[in-house]
User: Fold this.
Amino acid sequence: MSNDRFWRAISIDSISSELFPRVALYLKSGSNYVLYKDPDRMFSAEDHHRLERNSSRFLYVRSGDVDSINEFMENSLAEMLARDDLSSTAKSRILYQTSVNCVIDIFESPEPTSNLVRCRNMVRHILQYVSSDPHAMVSVQKVIDTGFYLFTHTVQVAALTLLVNSELFKLAHDEMIDVGIGCLLHDYGMTFITNEVLEKNDALSDIEYWKVKQHTQKGYEYLKQSGHYGEIVLNIVRYHHERYDGNGYPTGLKGDDIPRSGQVAALCDVYSALIMDRPQRKANSHADAIKIMREEAKSGAFKLELFNNFVEIIHKRNPS
Assistant:
């Protein structure tokens, strides 16, 4: 198994020479991590320029240093996203990495109230970003790290779902926050599936596929039992693989018996999965993903009106 789980990537755009915590920073060379800066040396403006010249977008920290990094990045996020001197791509790198770190923590420990508060604050930042920056979705897609597929996919589904809901429905702010939390947690049930199955490069066997399909119900039951999450969050976790024609899982709900939040999350989940590299296949282009989904919509997988609205929003934000 890869040792990547012991490391976290940090966008160089988010490393401040004045404020960043004193931690060791590493460069990744193949499968190895090489010390770039020890904890006693400040990260300087020259470091930033040197890394940019070498096209190094990320440095890496040991997982044991992540708490101090997270505290800094989450406290600085609003200020960074408001800066005029950062491009949409730079802001997306910062938001993406901060969100992924938060999601990893909440997947590991969904019960503590402190992690739920962090999750709620992260959703606010994502919502603000995708609703105010017309280039947000393209930028987020550019900076995704396929080495963290599950967490990257989760953040992308949250951003997409918040965007679609903000464009189509007049939801109260608290409801939008719950939608975002539900999407950040929609694949929580995957934590109950072995890495052997999740990281398999070949096609899954029938038994393995059955195990994967259990993630919606397992995630729903665990999060419901925790008592921290409301109906909207739990609906997204449970119903994001239901299909409009009744051929989805885990319950086989049909038509508008599927909660709207689950229907929107299902569209965004499929789109995100199609445009990202997977262990079993390479990513589809935006155009090919929409083509595949259109055929599924014609066959009844999605509510046609909702799918057409989704496509219009995605084309507007990703016209390529």
User: Anything to note?
Assistant: DSSP finds 14 helices and four strands in the chain. The CA atoms of residues 26 and 35 lie 4 Å apart.
